Amino acid sequence: MRNQIDLLATVTVLGVLEQAYFALQVIYARRKYKISPPATAGHPEFERIFRAQVNCSEYFPIFVSLLWVAGIFFHQGVAAACGLLYLYTRFKYFQGYTTAAQGRLGPLYASAWLLWLLIGLAVAGLLAHFLLPRSFTWSAVLAQPLQLLGTW
Fold first, then answer.
1. Cβ contact 89:29 at 8 Å
2. DSSP letter string, 14-69
3. Backbone φ and ψ of 34, nearest 5°
4. Across the chain, what does the average pLDDT equal?
């Protein structure tokens, strides 16, 4: 069982560590600019760091849910690869936003695209699970073109 979810679990833990990193950046910015909780306004750099962290936190439950559904019902490797790319784009989003508000846009669009891709994979996997015979697997479907190439 573990080898069927090990990639998903790894990406999930990496995502949690990324969220912890973002939260630490807010703590450091609060100290640097002397902004005590619960205040969320102050120096513009603090506000950008705070907003970047909050924005990433807001999307994290959606990401983790889609990662696991796509990984279990579609394909673990494909979902994990999408998950790693998503975490990378969120990191670039955080870096871009903390520098300048406009710096967030490219990574924001990329991460949104990856979430839509995970939604598509999750839906495809669930539809296959409920509508196709139990012997159906995505691995077989994805491997079929490779098998055809091998017969040449």
1. no
2. HHHHHHHHHHHHHHHHHHHHT--TT---SSHHHHHHHHHHHHHHHHHHHHHHHHHH
3. 55, 55
4. 91
Q: Is 51 a catalytic residue?
A: no
Q: How far apart are CA 129 and CA 72, in angstroms?
A: 10
Residue that wins the pLDDT comparison between 69 and 3: 69
Name the residue among 36, 85, 43 with its Cα closest to residue 63.
85
Query: Which of these is catalytic: 31, 51, 90, 134?
Result: 31
Catalytic residue, from 51, 90, 104, 134: name it: 104
DSSP assigned state of 120: H
How far, in Å, CA of 46 to CA of 150, rounded? 56
Give SS3 for 90. Answer: helix
Asked about 30 being catalytic, the answer comes back as no
With a cut of 60, say whether residue 152 has pLDDT above it. Answer: no
